[in-house]
Amino acid sequence: MNSLKKQYLLVQQARAVMLNFCGTIEPEDLRKQLAGFNDSTILNLLLHIANTYHFWLKRFAAKQEFTYFEEKDISSIQDVKRIFRQTDILVADFLNSYPYHTTRIKGEIFWLKTDMTFNVLELFTHVMTHEFHHKGQIMTMSRLLGYTPIDADIIRFN
Question: Which residues are within 8 A (CB) of 126 and not within 5 positions of it... i.e. 6 or more apart?
Answer without folding.
Answer: 56, 118
